[in-house]
UniProtKB/TrEMBL annotation:
The chain crosses the membrane at residues 40-62, 68-87, 94-113. It comes from Mucilaginibacter litoreus. This is Uncharacterized protein. Keywords: Membrane, Transmembrane, Transmembrane helix.
Length: 114
């Protein structure tokens, strides 16, 4: 029986992996190296969100007339970080949630305050 092979798909995968090697592979390798520091990253995430991100909805709602959805997004991200950290999520999940919350809050500040 003859076996069909698709060499173009293998070539495209190799080229895509070489082009994308810095962003994905280096980032996941760095995140995997941070696995022994999972508790530290959980604490950094909670402290940063408690000090920097939880006041954002109060400022945006009071001074810039932002919608109430800003508060829902902030509290949703805060509690999802708590649940992920206390629930034993992987380091990749913790760092991804932390990065998403940073980007979401920066986006909200840029959209409503500027």
């Amino acid at each position: 029986m003859a076996t069909l092979t698709n060499t173009t798909a293998a070539l495209k995968t190799t080229v895509a992996a070489n082009n994308n090697s810095f962003s994905i592979n280096k980032l996941t390798a760095w995140a995997d190296k941070q696995a022994p520091n999972r508790t530290m990253w959980f604490m950094v995430s909670l402290i940063a969100q408690g000090v920097l991100f939880l006041p954002v909805p109060a400022v945006l709602l009071y001074y810039f007339d932002a919608p109430l959805a800003v508060l829902a997004v902030t509290l949703g991200l805060f509690f999802s970080n708590i649940i992920a950290g206390m629930g034993g999520a992987s380091i990749r999940t913790l760092l991804a949630l932390f990065a998403v919350s940073i980007l979401a809050h920066l986006t909200m500040v840029v959209l409503f305050a500027l």
